[in-house]
Amino acid sequence: MRTPAGTECRYYYEDFHRSRSVQECRLLERSESTLPWEPRVCAVCPVPSILRANNCSHMELHARLTRRWLRRRVEVEAFCTDQQVPVENPYVGCGHCHPRAAAVLTAGEEGTE
């Protein structure tokens, strides 16, 4: 579903049909230690870009909304359910599920130095 920031995110949900007014982030809703979510948080959330870069079915995301100085930010951690390992870079993945893609992305990062 399209977020208030204009990007597609599978964790965002809204329902305004027949005078309902529901907007929520289902990823942050699952988090235990988080600040209250507001629609403007979608503008600074990295989750839609992570999902565009790596849509691995084995990657599980955990997010938490924190406040740093006066700004809110979304901290994201990823975990591979297939290999049972934490994912260092969720944009790339664990490196085991899609080894050819990880090799190409890693080689591209080395060339930019």
Specify the overall morphology: globular
Average pLDDT confidence is 83
Q: Helix/strand-derived class?
A: alpha+beta
The total of beta strands comes to 5
Poorly predicted runs are: none
Radius of gyration: 16 Å
Helical amount: 10-25%
Helix tally equals: 3
Order of helices and strands: EEHHEEEH
Distance between the termini: 37 Å
Range of strand content: 25-35%
Count of spatially separate domains: 1
The main pleated sheet reads as: 3 strands, antiparallel
Strand order of the largest sheet: 3-4-5
Short account of what is shown:
With 113 residues, the chain is an alpha+beta fold.
Structural write-up:
The structure is a single chain. This protein has one domain. Strand 4 and strand 5 form a beta hairpin. By secondary structure, the chain is an alpha+beta fold. 22% of the residues lie in helices and 27% in strands. The protein is built from 3 helices and 5 strands; from the N terminus they run E-E-H-H-E-E-E-H. The strands form 2 sheets. It has a 3-stranded antiparallel beta sheet with strand order 3-4-5. Strands 1-2 form a two-stranded antiparallel sheet.
